Amino acid sequence: MNRISKIKDSRQKLLDKSILKSFPKVEFHRHLEGTFSIEKLFEISIKNGLDIPKDYKVFKKQFQFPKNAEPDFFTFISKFKDNWFRSLEDIYSVTYYSVKNFKNDGIFYIELRFSPHYFARFNHFDRKEVTKVIIEAANKAARENNIEIRFLITFSRRSQTPNEMIELYDQISSLNLNEIVGVDLASYEKNYPPKKFISVFNKIIKENNYKATIHAGEVTPPDYIWSAIKDLNASRIGHGTSVIYDKKLQKYIKNHNIALEQCITSNYLTGSWVNEENHPFGKLFKKGIPVMLNSDDPSIQDSDLTDDYLKAIRYFDLTLDDLIKMNKTAIDSAFLPEKDKHNLYKEYLKQVNSFKEKYNLI
Hints:
This protein is an alpha/beta fold. The chain is built from 18 helices and eight strands. The longest helix has 22 residues, at 338-359.
């Protein structure tokens, strides 16, 4: 078989989801609240006597974004409910089984984000206890499945004031948990520009505890991305699709290694970018902009990270080398010390080589 034939054969194998699932992947933009094990959530809901369909298939259908529905941001976020849990044991259980499922998506290293505020507010749980429980459960599942995991604490623009964010930050940082490596500003961007949260991120950066990733430019213009970088000291940008309209911004984030955490499937469902085949990821990647693929909220989307990889291969003609390059970019952008990133990359290449050998790929 000549080289061209081998490349074609490799492409066909990568388009086989059962093979691509085992390709080792790095992910930085996945919300725990959107990646729940639906089976475990159904079990917890039944146990707690919640007003839900008693048929699992009907429950699953209601939990997820409607099939064949028009993209819509508010329909999407309406799926995030906070009344599932009645105890810290419920939170531990759903976290453990959710992270355990990551092995089915080929996750090698993940910086998983979650909002202690989300998990705590319905039952007024202690946010520090919630944080410790989630990290304990996730760490256990990750160890059992040979997954490297770290955590990002999410603040919500719509449901937390800057003062409440600072209070939560003080509580979380007092735990001195090394597994927490960053903070995330999420939720609906419009009416909540980055400048509103300068006090929060000035404190975080000044104390030098965590790096920041900011949801910006998903449904807003490039100005929001500029502000996230300049005003909030963002080291990464969540989504950032509108960067495609600003060449100066593209050059800036490339020169400063500010990675874009992009999510093809999620952007379609929320209506932020409804033409998947023309998603900015393809053009940005080809231009050498630091960009990576992520799943965002796979359980709600009825998808997984592998689906976004498949789309990137189909729509943008990505090769195996491209996928490896993209994940190397991701590791370079991890919120880890340089020594840890170096060790992570060495281990990543080992797993990639094992993947290649298993499926005879070039």
